[in-house]
Amino acid sequence: MRPLDVLRFAWVSLRGYPSRTLLMTVAMAIGVAAVVIFTALGEGARRYVVDQFASLGTNLVIVFPGRSETAGTGPGMFLGQTSRDLTLDDALALTRSRAVLRVAPLAVGSALISFGGRSREAPVIGTTAEWEAIRNMQMAQGSFLPGGDPHAPSPVCVIGATVRDELFGAAPALGQFVRIGDRRFRVIGVLATQGQHMGFNTDEMVIVPVASAQALYNINTLLRILVEARSREELDAAKRDMIRIIRDRHQGELDVTVVTQDAVLATFDRVLTALTLAVGGIAAVSLGVAGILIMNVMLIAVSQRTREIGLLKALGAAPRQIRLLFFGEAVLLSSIGAAAGVVLGLAGNAAIVRVYPVLPAAVPAWAVVAAVTTAVTTGIVFSIMPARRAARLDPVSALSGR
Amino acid sequence: MIGLQRISRVFQVGGQPVHALREITLAVESGEYVSLMGPSGSGKSTLLNIVGLLDRANSGVYRLDGKDVTSLSDEEQARVRREKIGFVFQFFHLVPRLSAAENIELPMALAGISAAERRARALELLNAYGLKDRGGHRPDQLSGGQRQRVAIARATVMRPGILLADEPTGNLDRASGKEVVQILEDLHESGVTLLLVTHDPELGRRAHRQLHMVDGAIAEDRKEEQA
Question: E-assigned strands of A20-117?
Answer without folding.
Answer: 60-65, 100-115
